Amino acid sequence: MKLFLLPLFASALALCAGPVLAQVAVPVTVPPAAEAPVADAQDGGGLTGSVTDESEWQDLGIAIPAFATDREQATPANAQGTTALGQALAEVVYSDLRNNGLFRPTGPGSLPRPAYPQITAPAFDQWRGRSTEMLVHGYVRAGADGQLTIGCYLYDVQLGQQLVREGWQVAPSDWRRAAHRCADMVYSRLSGESPFFDSKIAFIAESGPKDNRVKRLAIMDSDGANLRFITNGQSMALTPRYSPDYSKIVYLSYLNGYPRIFVYDIGTGRQTLVTESQNPTFAPRWSPDGRSILYSMAMSGNTDIYRVPATGGQSVKLTDSPGLDVGGSYSPDGTQIVFESDRSGSQQVYVMNADGSNQRRISFFGGRAATPEWSPRGDQIAFTHIAGNLRVAVMSPAGRNMRHLTDGWQDEAPTWAPNGRIVQFFRTAQGGGETSIWQVDLTGRNERKLDTPVNASDPSWGPVLP
Predict the structure, then answer these.
(1) Cα–Cα distance, 334 to 309 (Å, whole number)
(2) TolB N-terminal domain: from which residue to which, for each copy (predicted)?
(3) Fewest CB within 10 A of the end CB: N or C in the chain?
(4) Level-2 CATH architecture, domain 199-464
């Protein structure tokens, strides 16, 4: 996907066919604010600030009408042409912004479709009459070579000012990525947070009866679209994790009862065996630099945490205490590891230095604690709190300020969005045992289920796509 800076409106018009623009009844004069350089537009006006779990609730009204097109054209991206594709693009942007918990967007289904020249010269009075605070405009054009040009603009309606704009040239198969990038642009500009919509999720797809479950490695977009199975189910796949650069996935495979840790290369489709053993093995995790992998292995009555080069080789034992030490997760700077251990008599969360030294317990709030994972921001640790039900919770790296984000019957195995603001987990339904992937923001107020065609567990949210 090629990123480009959107041209000023006069230049944009020059790219369009003259006769088509001649048929447009609305004026094409651009307000001065739209002619300002992008850097100036970004520096003035609009809402800024950082959103954290302590911030007040934001309830911005954002209008997202259908993306316009200069002329109806056929495209492999949508059988009905570029007009229908413009509607679909806006729907994806609307869905992304609606489900993150910060904004109050209105989607294209209940909004007027803008004319093509209005994309860079909005009818601000019309939108003010709808009590719109922010306006997302976009366009899509299909080139003779089949490539799509997609532009996205964000306006402050009350100020009558453009805040930011971006554009992309994409293959028809990547149109959803452009929509996610548009949502990321809007989200980042209004919240001050890093983007996360243009990312992928790895998970375990489950099918078949409970006593003979087939578990396959699968990946999908952050909104659940474009699901693809990576393994065929002949061996059981468990606990996938994306590499820091998104290029690979590490996962655990059980074939004929023997555990093996594989690294799957997303670009080539090749798999590399990292380590294998006849001993029970659990929970492989990447180091932040992608050069090594943590895993847990049971041997001689103990389960300890080991580190092995990502390309395979000699493993180094990091823990050696009686009991079960499982599930290491590095801090973002790579200096510490959080893990669970029952050395105190029940599952609790511990932290140690990356070399295995200075191991100390941090969870002292009652019940048990398992599956800890460090936030990419470094400021919080998500984990499964077991006290009657299983609930997803967060706490500081020192074990303070624990609070629950979910209140389900069995919610477990949290994983973080790339920007550290959303936590994803899997939920087991009481009674039936069906598993599904859910996500919740740090306020705990906004839960969302990701629809999958089969049962789903063990999610891993990958980095923002390059």
Answers:
(1) 15
(2) 60-163
(3) C
(4) 6 Propeller (2.120)
